[in-house]
Specification:
heterotrimer; A alpha/beta (about 425); B mainly alpha (about 290); C mainly alpha (about 325); B: 4 strands; C: mainly alpha; 2 strands
Chain lengths: ~425, ~290, ~325
């Protein structure tokens, strides 16, 4: 057995070596019009609501891009994405995948969702540009390393919408915040809620937290409800806040619940069970604009195509995932190289919004896609409609220099 | 404050149901049954699957409890029985079984949490400043009823007397003609039933997942040590003490370290009494 | 007598040196998935060599080894962030973890069997809570990056060297009075105590030594991996380490190596889909416990003895 394991190790090693030798861009092989890049996604584990949808969208994006291909230094190319599952544990599984992709396979660009900080030491050893298609945590992941890019606005661009909307439309004067402790996205949200509550003149009457992975939120919920707030804000992602929402409703809370998790109807049904429609009543979600509620024709068309092909509700991240191949192609064209991470990295900062993309980005000054490595997206507040058992846009807005601008309210969100 | 104490009572009832199953098995067979967490998980999934297939809740709950009993008895028949003469091997076997059971659940249902619906999900009682959600009242009722039934079984029936005899002195009981093997199976059967009860009592407040019982199991082991390995009465008392202690610690010190307060208690006990709070033989399994 | 003892040492230490050199070759040659497997196998072997004193020779079911492994990894990462030189950070991390081991030992070395397993398991559960929740130091549930204190070449050299030196130290220590006393604890603890063996103190020393091995392995693992997270040091990991020693053959020199390779190979190499490899591992472990209590090495040793006797008698 021991020798067999050693043999397996040797075999794996020789495969690794041979892929290195025959990798893209080396030698006059006939394959070098096909360019391979990487994507590390959460296909399984706690965040498995994210990865499969991202992969679906990327598959569509690659197919669309390859219909015409893209030109680099006068030659036509097609794109291929090598996928890896980080098992929702970037520090253990994701970082291994990154080493494999950048050191063994020599892939020049990697897309990823979670775990920015954990990839930094490996990026120091072997720098490549990494494009984040998901993580809007505050403070921004972009502060971690100069090789990271973010295809969407940070939480700070949409959290203020929650407070602004509920104050104007529901007359909310006080709010209680319940946080998932140790979950960076949720902790960032709580900081932002406190900031924007102050700006809006809404009082934060209670803050409580529960440890990530705990099973009983009784104490945190009691603290929040006992303060008699007008609304409760739940800080964290879908999979974490929905069980809290359930216990919050079980404890007798009937007021509005706010969050920035991007819950969609499929997830609500799966996680909350049969009573999801009752439990989701009076829910307000402030986050990035969704494909289904977007007014952008290209985005709406993508949402329709996605739904038809995969029979599931497209999450916000599907647009950014779909656009990843187009960003890569534009950067490689700009760089004049399909293999050099340094040139591609530099090119990413110089490209404008690529044709064919569906995210509906707002152009940065100078018509650039990325400024300071970040792209700009609009935000919206959605509300749950019990009659149709789905979500609808209640307000869209943009955020500039710490203030909400371009607010547009839906006349009657639930129709 | 009163709400915190009530939360402690809920926790205590949950710990009691789990810990009594552990201590019963320990009393009769001297096995630290780490695999009990896996039994609870599979019972919870069985309930969920039955409910998902359209069975009414009561039926699904019975299916879950039955599943707990069957799995628990299987662990005894297929594994524990063969190490009864080798106490050093039993922690290893228990942990091996835990791996198998948890990963069976992971394989069968995936890692994502499932929600278990009950008819009393939205029921709510209010007594002054204290709120009592229906699911937690159900938890207390289930715990009290099942433990009362166990008490009657142990004290009033010949089966119970035989089990107590085995727990007190295995060899003597064997000489007096008590069928030892049947007692082992019976202990695991009762533990499995209690595991099933624990699963349906507490899964509705959280999600059903392969690792849902890990924390509860650790706390239940603290209870077993506090109450004296093998003592049912000790386990119930210990469970209530630990439940209140964890709830107080969680409310007033840090909710993140809730189960660490149990560890602190465990350390204090083991420093003072390295071989645990061993109850007198007469009170074991009673 | 000295001649045969030299021969005995040479017979053990020769293969140890060879394994050490092989480890270095593999660490340099492999990257990506295979590299990770090699890294885990080497660092686990170092950590498990420590566990082999407590669980292996003394027969005490310790489920604290992943805590010590994690303690070294996290402490060194934190100290490096405070600007300490790499060697000092590593030394302090090992020292600090051994201190934690001393506390664990003081509390639990007086307990027996089941209580020891429950107590050490709970200790690991609590360290996982700390790794997960003390986010200011540990980075929380998603882990924290590790400052790269040693160049990669040095880390690889240290990993391979520590593997060999660790095994050699185990071989030599097992032959001393300390080793004999640990064996006495395994055979019959009450009798040993009666005969004047300070059993509690012997167990205490073994636990502290195991903490040292675990912590040093953690330091090196963190340096190579560049990031540490709670999921790498949970009680499931502790348990898999415990399984590895059991499968390898408790108390035998190469048990940590054989056990690590088998456990890691089964969980990482063979892809049956989620969970299945662990189910297989659980079943294999129970089977080994029931059928071959001396592990794979015990079975191989018995086979070798039988062949040799046959050869001699023939």
């Amino acid at each position: 057995m021991r020798s067999r394991t050693a043999a397996a190790l040797l075999a794996a090693g020789s495969i690794a070596l041979s892929t290195t030798a025959c990798g893209p861009g080396s030698g006059p092989g006939g394959d070098d019009t096909k360019v391979k890049v990487g994507a590390i996604l959460s296909m399984s584990g706690v965040y498995s609501t994210l990865g499969p949808a991202e992969k679906n969208a990327m598959t569509m994006g690659v197919e669309e891009l390859n219909r015409t291909g893209f030109t680099v230094a006068g030659r036509k190319h097609t794109l291929e994405i090598g996928y890896a599952d980080d098992k929702s544990d970037p520090a253990t599984t994701g970082v291994v995948a990154l080493r494999d992709m950048t050191q063994s396979q020599k892939l020049p660009v990697i897309a990823y969702g979670l775990g920015s900080a954990t990839y930094v030491p490996q990026l120091r050893r072997k720098p490549v540009p990494m494009i984040n298609i998901l993580d809007s945590s505050y403070p921004s992941v972009l502060a971690q390393d100069p090789h990271l890019y973010l295809t969407r606005g940070g939480s700070d661009t949409y959290v203020p919408g929650c407070l602004s909307y509920t104050k104007q439309k529901l007359g909310t004067k006080s709010i209680a915040v319940i946080t998932a402790k140790g979950e960076p996205y949720g902790e960032g949200l709580t900081q932002l809620v406190q900031k924007s509550a102050q700006a809006e003149g809404v009082k934060v009457v209670a803050t409580s937290d529960y440890p990530l992975g705990s099973t009983d939120y009784g104490n945190a919920i009691n603290t929040a409800v006992a303060a008699k707030p007008d609304a409760v804000y739940l800080s964290s992602v879908t999979g974490v806040i929905l069980p809290v929402l359930k216990q919050l409703r079980q404890s007798g809370w009937t007021g509005p619940v706010l969050h920035s998790s991007g819950v969609n109807p499929d997830q609500a049904r799966a996680i909350l069970g049969n009573q999801f429609n009752t439990l989701m009543k009076d829910n307000y979600d402030c986050a990035g604009t969704l494909p289904t509620t977007s007014a952008h024709p290209a985005t709406a068309a993508f949402a329709k195509a996605y739904q038809e092909r995969w029979h599931e509700y497209p999450q916000d991240l599907t647009m950014w995932a779909y656009d990843y191949p187009f960003i890569v192609a534009a950067a490689m064209t700009e760089a004049g190289s399909t293999t050099d991470p340094v040139k591609i990295d530099r090119a990413l900062g110089a490209i404008s919004i690529p044709k064919g993309t569906v995210s509906g980005w707002l152009p940065n000054p100078g018509d650039l896609l990325f400024t300071d490595h970040g792209a700009r997206t609009t935000s919206e507040v959605t509300t749950w409609c019990p009659a149709t058992q789905t979500i609808a846009s209640a307000m869209t807005f943009d955020h500039r220099d710490g203030a909400i601008v371009d607010q547009v309210f839906a006349k009657d969100a639930c129709g | 404050m009163s709400q915190v104490l009530v939360n402690g009572l809920f926790l205590g009832c949950l710990f009691a149901v789990v810990a009594v199953g552990l201590t019963l098995v320990y009393g009769v067979m001297e096995v630290p049954n780490f695999a009990h967490a896996g039994v609870i998980v599979l019972a919870a999934y069985a309930t969920w699957a039955a409910g998902d297939a359209g069975a009414p809740f009561a039926l699904a709950a019975l299916a879950g409890i039955a599943c707990g009993a069957v799995v628990s008895v299987l662990t005894e028949v297929l594994a524990y029985r063969w190490v009864v003469d080798k106490p050093a091997a039993s922690p290893a076997v228990a942990l091996g079984l835990l791996l198998i059971l948890q990963n069976t659940a992971l394989r069968g249902y995936g890692g994502a949490g499932r929600s278990l619906d009950t008819p009393y999900d939205t029921v709510l009682f209010r007594i002054g400043p204290v709120t009592l959600p229906g699911v937690k009242v159900a938890l207390v009722l289930l715990a009290v009823l099942s433990l009362a039934a166990l008490h009657l079984l142990l004290s009033r029936t010949s089966l119970g007397r035989a089990m107590r005899a085995v727990a007190q002195d295995r060899e003597a009981a064997a000489m007096l003609g008590v069928p030892i093997r049947r007692q082992y199976t019976l202990a695991f059967l009762i533990a499995g039933l209690l595991g099933g009860v624990a699963a349906i009592a507490y899964a509705p407040t959280f999600q059903v997942s392969p690792y849902m019982a890990d924390d509860v199991l650790l706390s239940a082991f603290v209870v077993v040590v506090l109450g004296g390995l093998g003592s049912v009465r000790g386990a119930v008392t210990g469970a209530l003490v630990l439940g209140v202690a964890e709830s107080l610690g969680s409310a007033y010190v840090s909710s993140a370290y809730q189960s660490a307060f149990g560890f602190l208690l465990l350390v204090l006990v083991l420093v003072r009494w390295p071989s645990g709070l061993r109850s007198t033989d007469a009170r074991r399994v009673a | 007598m000295p001649a045969s003892s030299t021969a005995r040492h040479a017979a053990a230490l020769g293969p140890v040196a060879a394994v050490s050199v092989l480890a270095h070759v593999l660490l340099i040659g492999f990257q990506g998935e295979a590299g990770q497997l090699t890294l885990l196998a080497v660092s686990w072997t170092i950590a498990l060599t420590g566990l082999n004193f407590v669980q292996g020779i003394a027969g005490y079911p310790s489920l604290a080894q992943a805590s010590f492994f994690g303690g070294g990894a996290y402490l060194s990462a934190i100290l490096l962030d405070h600007g300490l030189p790499a060697a000092l950070a590593a030394a302090l991390a090992v020292g600090g973890t051994m201190l934690a081991g001393l506390v664990v030992g003081l509390v639990f070395s007086r307990t027996r069997g089941q209580y020891f397993a429950i107590g050490t398991m709970f200790f690991t559960a609590v360290t996982t809570l700390v790794f997960t929740n003390a986010a200011d130091w540990t980075g929380g549930p998603d882990g924290r990056p590790v400052g790269l204190g040693f160049p990669l070449d040095t880390t690889l050299l240290l990993l391979a060297g520590s593997l060999g030196l660790g095994l050699a130290a185990f071989h030599l220590l097992a032959g001393t009075r300390f080793g004999a006393r640990l064996r006495a604890v395994r055979e019959d603890e009450d009798l040993a105590q009666h005969l004047g063996v300070p059993t509690a103190r012997v167990k205490l020393v073994a636990i502290v030594v195991s903490a040292g091995f675990g912590a040093w392995a953690g330091v090196l693992f963190a340096q190579y991996n560049g990031v540490v997270a709670p999921s790498q040091f949970t009680f499931v990991q502790s348990f898999l380490m415990f399984v590895a020693i059991g499968i390898g053959g408790a108390g035998r020199l190469f048990a940590p190596l054989v056990g690590s390779v088998l456990v890691l190979g089964l969980t990482q190499l063979v892809n049956f889909g989620p969970g299945v490899s662990q189910i297989v591992l659980g079943a294999v472990f129970i089977a080994v416990t029931l059928v071959a209590p001396h592990g794979v090495l015990g079975v191989l040793g018995a086979l070798w003895d039988r062949i040799r006797t046959k050869a001699v008698t023939a």
